Amino acid sequence: MSKDFIDQEFQKINKAYNATFKVNHLSIGLVVPIETYSNSPIPTMNKQLEIINLAEELGFSTIWLRDIPFNVPSFGDVGQMFDPFTYLGFLSGQTKKIALGVGSIILPLRHPAHIAKSAASIDVLSNGRLILGIASGDRPEEYPALNMNFSNRGERFRESFDYIKQVWQKSPTFENDFGSLSGGLDMLPKPVSGQIPMLITGASQQSPDWLAKNGDGWITYPRNPVFQSKIIRQWRLGAQTSGSYNKPVSQSLYIDLIENSTLSPEPIHLGYRLNTTHLKEHLKSLERVGVNHVALNLRFNQSNIERTLRRLAEEILPEFS
Q1: Dihedral of the CA atoms 118, 120, 123, 128 (nearest 10)?
Q2: Residues 197 and 104: beta-carbon distance below 8 Å
Q3: By C-alpha distance, which of 11, 13, 215 is closest to 104?
Q4: pLDDT, tens digit (0-9, with 9 covering 90-100), for 281-304
Q5: Helix (H) or strand (E) holding 4
Q6: Which percentage of the chain shows pLDDT scores above 90?
Q7: CA–CA separation, 153 and 150 (whole Å)
Q8: Relative to the CA of 94, which of 3, 86, 110, 233 has its CA 20 to 30 Å away?
Q9: Bridge partner residues of 63 (DSSP)
């Protein structure tokens, strides 16, 4: 893969995408709920608007919601509980500049017309601040609850993706298993810039070539930076060989931020218990291997959340602004 390709500027899509993702640079966001709930799958959701407004004031680039329709015991986390589109609509009117991300909408579980309409509405209401993460879903229990087939979710994901892209166009003519558009209908509103960035999560039951060619970016899972480097390189090589363009990579990271300056990092679920010095070193290592955004999840954080956010803003954000 050529260095010219790696250094190629990302496509300009909307305000959120353009502000969150920059070539050879890592930005920092937060996963909602921004609270500690390590002993239960269900957060309190107390004072979340105040905390999100504080995160915006402190300079975090993006907040991320998740699409978890049911409390699945084996999964052990209900995220922000509220429907992501409903909550994003609420937050779009209560914030001014922070990017609003969802990571990720489970395409096979919803009709793509509803996804396209909801996403475009939030994008317009927020003046282009929506990043739409999408996925095929990994909780088998949800599919029979909605009378849907878990085994064909990969095919449904592709067809939903195509439908959404088409329906954002003016009076499209298009047909697949989700419906037929004959050119006589036009869905409104349209996204602010004509499209909304769609970042694909994981493999979503697709081939590496399809992923590299079709998504506007990739949301992947936390890994050791050395292994992450290999995965990202393969993904970007796929984009280059498919004739596509350079695209950003995002990941989450659970942290429990401690104040002790002598302790070495300790692994926790999908992340680390560590101090700001070690966190900065880890984030810099991710930036060097090509990660463009990290969404910090504070579910297991033991310190006061407001104090943690202020420490992150003072000691971490200046390196990644």
Answers
A1: 160
A2: no
A3: 215
A4: 999 999 999 999 999 999 999 999
A5: helix 3-6
A6: 91
A7: 6
A8: 110
A9: 30, 100
Cα-Cα end-to-end distance for the chain = 28
Q: How confident is the model at residue 1 (pLDDT cuts 50, 70, 90)?
A: low
Question: What was the pLDDT predicted at 261?
Answer: 78
The pair of structure tokens assigned to 204 is 């979503």
CA distance 155 to 160: 9
The amino acid occupying position 180 is S
User: Which tokens hold the place of 28?
Assistant: 């920092």
HSE (side-chain half, CA atoms, 13 Å) at 151: 0
Rg (CA), the chain: 19
What value does the mean pLDDT of the chain take?
Answer: 95
Confidence label for 188 from pLDDT (cuts 50, 70 and 90): very high
DSSP alpha helices (H): ranges in 153-207? 153-167
268, two tokens:
């926790």
- pTM: predicted TM-score of the whole model, two decimal places: 0.96
CB of 221 closer than 8 Å to CB of 103: no
Task: For the domain made up of 3-319, give the CATH fold.
Answer: TIM Barrel (3.20.20)
Q: What is the DSSP string of 190-203?
A: PPTTS---EEEES-
| CB of 236 closer than 8 Å to CB of 6 | yes
Supply 247's token pair: 């695209």
